DNA sequence: ACAAAAAGTAAAATTTAATATACCAATTCA
DNA sequence: TGAATTGGTATATTAAATTTTACTTTTTGT
């Protein structure tokens, strides 16, 4: 479960500009209007939109807040459609017979999805991830017990659990049939 | 599928500080070392960590890049464990008999998870979301056809699809049994 | 206890983001 | 056509982020 460098230094300003322009156009308001609305000078907005600026966090916040979008939406890059099918033999993260996790899509740094298989009576201990990581686990079929912070939580089909992943946690399949899981690892959770 | 204001203006600097300190402590390096490593002055880092700063995007980037984490990880807030069970009657987003989506967890602004039910032969047309939104749909059971950008993609059990959600897209259940879905809406995808 | 490293403080200098104002060109629209 | 809006340019000013240097306090480790 890796994190890759999203962009180079020169691109940071470029993408926030592209995104801002997109969001603003989407709302159909002019630079001047937005400027007055959020209390940032017109020129500042203009420079940011053209990627020729190095805005301050407070300015970034004012923009995001004024447009009613999360800050991170301003810093994102897009791509398009892709599909991950069950059979697709992708690289396995942990293939110790008992627990198998396969990445669903090429990681884009901020969010990662995995499909997981936990064998009957199987048990898997996960080390703590980086601080700031949030983990979402959903049972697609079977049963699962998640132990985190010393507490065990039992999940059935279609149940989901969310917990901070920056501490050790244990997955157990208490049943006698295979458990299919769905993981979302988020490196950003406001 | 809403977006809520994550924090107030005064808090922006506070959280980036808390997170930075956490990440740095986690890597076990001192302020001075990190400062030289990423080319930012010690005092600047110190002020940021104490939440008494309004850092520039380039500084934020240098930090994130130096720590090998996505920028957004620096701007995130944490909470703890919570579970969403199938029966939990939560507020429904769209309850027109055919398609039902229920939020799995209280939205934290950056990422949203939903459990979805699509009736046999059911069809649901979703309006375009904000630009910058990425959508991940996983079939937990049943079948699904997703139409986006004029192309139809068929999914079976445990298949997943990812696409830009800033355009209209249609979900169809071509089978004669209920389809259970899992949605991840991400407002940040590097 | 001692030395070393790390965190924190203080003040002045430098760099630069942000503002303000006025002006220009292209576009929209009545 | 002509007024108004919008994106963009130019310049000078202000406010503030960042750096540098040096010094103090706290923590860590042998």
* Amount of helix of chain A: 25-40%
CATH superfamily of the largest domain in chain A: Jelly Rolls
Give the largest chain-chain interface (CB within 8 Å).
A-B, 79 and 78 residues
Based on the coordinates given, report the CATH architecture of the largest domain in chain A: Sandwich
Q: Structural class from helices and strands of chain A?
A: alpha+beta
The CATH topology name of the largest domain in chain A reads Jelly Rolls
Q: Would you tell me the overall average pLDDT of chain A?
A: 80
End-to-end gap of chain A: 21 Å
Strand residue content of chain A:
25-35%
Q: What is the CATH C-level name of the largest domain in chain A?
A: Mainly Beta
Overall number of structural domains of chain A: 2
Oligomer: homodimer
Mind describing the biggest β-sheet of chain A?
A: 5 strands, antiparallel
Walk across the major sheet of chain A and give the strand order. Answer: 2-3-10-5-8
How many helical stretches of chain A?
Answer: 5
Q: What spatial form of chain A do the alpha-carbon principal axes imply?
A: elongated
Radius of gyration of chain A, CA atoms, in whole angstroms: 21 Å
Uncertain segments of chain A of ≥5 residues (pLDDT<50)?
A: 1-8, 88-95
H/E element order of chain A: HHHHHEEEEEEEEEE
Strand count of chain A: 10
Keywords (chains A, B): DNA-binding
Protein name (chains A, B): Transcriptional regulator, XRE family with cupin 2 sensor
Domain HTH cro/C1-type (chains A, B): 20-74
InterPro entries (chains A, B): Cro/C1-type_HTH, Cupin_2, Lambda_DNA-bd_dom_sf, RmlC-like_jellyroll, RmlC_Cupin_sf, TransReg_Diox_bact_type
């Amino acid at each position: 479960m890796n994190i890759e460098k999203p962009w180079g230094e020169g691109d940071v300003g470029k993408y926030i500009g592209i995104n801002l322009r997109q969001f603003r156009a989407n709302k159909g308001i002019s630079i001047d209007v937005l400027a007055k609305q959020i209390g940032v000078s017109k020129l500042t907005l203009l420079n940011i939109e053209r990627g020729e600026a190095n805005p301050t966090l407070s300015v970034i916040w004012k923009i995001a807040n004024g447009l009613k979008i999360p800050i991170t939406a301003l810093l994102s890059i897009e791509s398009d459609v892709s599909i991950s099918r069950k059979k697709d033999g992708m690289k396995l993260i942990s293939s110790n017979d008992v627990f198998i996790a396969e990445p669903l899509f090429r990681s884009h740094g901020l969010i990662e999805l995995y499909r997981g298989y936990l064998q009957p009576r199987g048990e898997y201990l996960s080390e703590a991830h980086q601080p700031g990581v949030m983990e979402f686990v959903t049972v697609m079929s079977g049963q699962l017990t998640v132990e985190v912070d010393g507490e065990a939580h039992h999940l059935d089909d279609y149940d989901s659990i969310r917990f901070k992943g920056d501490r050790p946690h244990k997955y157990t399949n208490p049943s006698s049939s295979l458990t299919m899981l769905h993981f979302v690892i988020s490196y950003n959770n406001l």
